[in-house]
């Protein structure tokens, strides 16, 4: 994704400059990216995330999730305000646990035909996922997906808390490729059990023709891990820094992650959460991003434009104005709105040749 938006063209520079001005003046901005959490149901038992426990503790909550009818009403009623949405990421929990997963994507294609969309999945329920992917591709062949890979073999199984989770995730990826799905990303959440396998996972993922990235675990109410110790020990962090420095100097996200872990730089990319990007939770609450529990309002009660530019939203945007997190979900949308930060980073990029090679490959249609 990053290699596709390098601001070496006049139009991209104009877009980024416009984003800065619009945010600074708090102008009404139509959202361009939605991270939509459709459910907290999950069939994994991940070590770093307790989402799967939410409905075990409060089983009646599942009944409060947005229905397909409510999702369609939101898309229809807010069609004009959503007209500039470029991408809707579908996540959970596990998105494919929703019986209406196919119809949700069909509705997005119907009401917002210019918006790309794609689900995140653990790839565990292979037969169910295969069936639904095949149906989705029949009306949306451009679909992209993200499949989590947190280690090789038993390492992945232990982190995900599911027997044979690794083999099933790989089977899901291969089946998606057989359907012609070419935009597949694989993220690796780093922890004590898998940090020594970064390069092995990268080689596997790229060998399958997928995009690889790795990141530190986030702590938030969304993950159900507030107060849980997710910060890695100093020696583990030191080894991660070394691997990132030697192997991912060409990658904007991972190289900045390394630099921030070292304490050499602070985040310089402005946060556009609540402006160009929003998060919607399973119950319709609109939030700046997945790391914030505070809500602007609920889509069941008001039009989205009114929610995002009301008094409550203004106060919350002011509160998060100087956020310095480096969460991949948020960074990946903010950098699309304002790609100037790539130019700021490029002089300290320690593998400029490979970075430019990747940019050139993308421009020439080579993945």
Describe, in plain words, how this protein is organized in 3D.
This protein is α/β, with parallel strands linked by helices. The protein has helices at 10-24, 54-57, 68-77, 101-111, 126-139, 154-160, 165-178, 198-207, 234-247, 252-262, 304-308, 311-319, 328-337, 340-345, 352-363, and strands at residues 33-37, 87-91, 116-121, 144-147, 183-189, 211-215, 277-280, 285-287, 297-298. Strands 6-5-4-3-2-1-7-8-9 form a nine-stranded mixed beta sheet, with helices on both faces. α3 packs parallel to α4 and α4 (101-111) runs parallel beside α5. It is globular, with a radius of gyration of 20 Å. The model has no long low-confidence stretch (mean pLDDT 92).
Instruction: Compute the number of strand runs.
Output: 9
Oligomer: single chain
What's the helical proportion of residues?
A: 40-55%
State the end-to-end CA separation.
Answer: 11 Å
Throw out a few tags for this protein:
367 residues, alpha/beta, nine-stranded mixed β-sheet, 41% helix, 11% strand, globular
């Amino acid at each position: 994704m990053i290699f596709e938006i390098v601001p070496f063209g006049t139009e991209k520079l104009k877009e980024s400059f416009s984003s800065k001005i619009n945010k600074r003046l708090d102008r009404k901005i139509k959202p361009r990216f939605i991270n939509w959490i459709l459910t907290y149901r999950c069939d994994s038992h991940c070590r770093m995330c307790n989402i799967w426990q939410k409905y075990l503790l409060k089983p009646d909550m599942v009944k409060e999730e947005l229905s397909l009818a409510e999702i369609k009403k939101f898309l229809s009623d807010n069609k004009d305000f959503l007209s500039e949405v470029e991408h809707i990421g579908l996540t959970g929990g596990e998105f494919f646990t929703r019986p209406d997963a196919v119809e949700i994507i069909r509705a997005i294609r119907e009401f917002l035909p210019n918006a790309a969309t794609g689900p995140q999945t653990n790839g565990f329920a292979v037969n169910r996922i295969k069936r639904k992917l095949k149906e989705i591709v029949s009306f949306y062949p451009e679909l992209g997906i993200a499949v989590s890979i947190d280690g090789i073999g038993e390492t992945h199984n232990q982190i995900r808390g599911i027997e044979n989770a690794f083999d099933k995730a790989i089977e899901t990826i291969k089946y998606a490729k057989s359907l012609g799905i070419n935009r597949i990303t694989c993220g690796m959440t780093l922890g004590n059990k898998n940090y020594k396998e970064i390069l092995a996972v990268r080689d596997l993922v790229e060998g399958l023709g997928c995009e690889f990235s790795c990141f530190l675990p986030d702590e938030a109410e969304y993950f159900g891990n507030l107060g849980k110790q997710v910060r890695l020990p100093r020696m583990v962090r030191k080894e991660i820094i070394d691997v990132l420095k030697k192997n991912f100097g060409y990658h904007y996200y991972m190289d900045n992650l390394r630099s921030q872990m070292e304490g050499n730089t602070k985040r310089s990319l402005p946060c556009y959460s609540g402006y160009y990007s929003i998060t919607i939770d399973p119950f319709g609450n609109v939030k700046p991003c997945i790391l914030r529990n505070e809500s602007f309002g609920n889509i069941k009660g008001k039009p989205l434009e009114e929610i995002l530019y009301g008094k409550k939203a203004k106060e919350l945007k002011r509160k998060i104005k100087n956020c310095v997190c480096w969460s991949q979900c948020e960074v990946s949308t903010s950098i699309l709105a304002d790609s100037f930060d790539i130019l700021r980073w490029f002089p300290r990029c320690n593998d400029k040749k490979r970075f430019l090679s990747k940019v050139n490959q993308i421009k020439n249609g080579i993945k």
